[in-house]
User: Which sequence fits this backbone?
């Protein structure tokens, strides 16, 4: 069967347009999107969160200090970002990272557990980046089961999940929290 030149041209043109379309879509698509991100966790907390998140089918991302230091952390790839602690020496990196994250993902919810983080963000002109949420911080810090409750709360409050929200469990002990401590 003989194909006309016009038919060949149309076929080639469609192939080129399809390739261009997919190249543009691939460039604009996020490399990976996560439900919840964390910065500044210590002592096995993230590993415990992953255990609970797996059961809830949530995708978590931990941004380590190296990613924050060198500016490679893609903070805009998460829907909700929790900050346990920040480092004042990284203030310039934070300013750039959080400005870029909000440009990439204007709906990004950023919650600080520590008041000092809010102070740092205010000094950087980034107060509008933080979402005030004093309830979330009550789930963090002293009881392992509260990490699961934090994820349930976050899912119900910020991710549109129809999950029960339980209040934070109170702890009668004082001191530092470590998820591997006995009786937790």
Assistant:
């Amino acid at each position: 069967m003989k194909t006309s030149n016009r038919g060949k041209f149309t076929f080639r043109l469609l192939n080129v347009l399809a390739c261009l379309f997919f190249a543009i879509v691939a460039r604009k698509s996020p490399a990976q999107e996560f439900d919840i991100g964390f910065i500044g966790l210590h002592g096995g907390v993230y590993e415990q969160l992953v255990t609970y998140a797996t059961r809830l089918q949530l995708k978590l991302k931990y941004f380590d200090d190296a990613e924050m230091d060198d500016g490679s952390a893609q903070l805009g790839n998460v829907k909700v970002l929790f900050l346990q602690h920040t480092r004042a020496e990284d203030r310039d990196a934070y300013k750039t990272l959080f400005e870029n994250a909000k440009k990439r993902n204007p709906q990004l919810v950023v919650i600080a557990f520590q008041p000092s983080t809010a102070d740092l963000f205010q000094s950087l002109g980034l107060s509008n980046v933080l979402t005030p949420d004093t309830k979330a911080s009550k789930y963090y810090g002293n009881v392992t089961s509260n990490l699961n409750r934090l994820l349930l709360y976050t899912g119900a409050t910020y991710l549109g999940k129809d999950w029960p929200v339980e209040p934070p469990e109170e702890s009668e002990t004082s001191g530092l929290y470590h998820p591997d401590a006995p009786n937790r």
